Amino acid sequence: MLISEILSLKGNEIVSVPPDCTVQEAVARMVEKDISSVVVMEGGTMVGLLTGRDLLRGMHERGCDLGRLTVSEVMVTEPIIGNPDDTVDYVRGVMTENRITHLPVMEGERLLGIISFHDVARACLSEAKLENRLLKRYIRHWPE
């Protein structure tokens, strides 16, 4: 399965905030949308990514009062990215190896969407279920 297939299944809504947005506003947006990351956009271009992990890191480094800081003070400015032709297995390895939970998917300079580790896990389970069904069907019709 390719990453482009995951994006087409989950939709390509991109929730974003500007870099001068406060962390408190970004968190409110994340809670409102029930998501754990937001893309930081400026002039139609991705300039960063803010995830739950970044918030935890910011709390550790600056204390618990992050609300008044701007997103640009806490975000990751150069997130690892994927492209639509990457396979789920490849992306799973990249995300695991780099300990990241969200991956922006880019086509050139254009942001197509964000996939989470949860999206990747769901795709892997779906593939495993399909393989199991095919194997069971094959075994049932095994020539004697």
From TrEMBL:
Is DNA repair one of the keywords UniProt gives this record? no
Please give the InterPro entries that the UniProt record associates with this protein.
Answer: CBS_dom, CBS_dom_sf, CBSX3_CBS_dom, Diverse_CBS-Domain
Q: Where is the CBS domain?
A: 8-66, 75-130
- Alphabetically ordered keywords of this record: CBS domain
Which SMART domains does the UniProt record give?
Answer: CBS
Say yes or no: keyword Transit peptide present.
no
- Gene3D superfamilies this protein is in? CBS-domain (3.10.580.10)
What PANTHER family does this protein map onto? CBS DOMAIN-CONTAINING PROTEIN, CBS DOMAIN-CONTAINING PROTEIN CBSX3, MITOCHONDRIAL
Quote the protein name from its UniProt record.
CBS domain-containing protein
Q: Which organism is it from?
A: Thiobacter aerophilum
Taxonomic placement? Bacteria, Pseudomonadati, Pseudomonadota, Betaproteobacteria, Burkholderiales
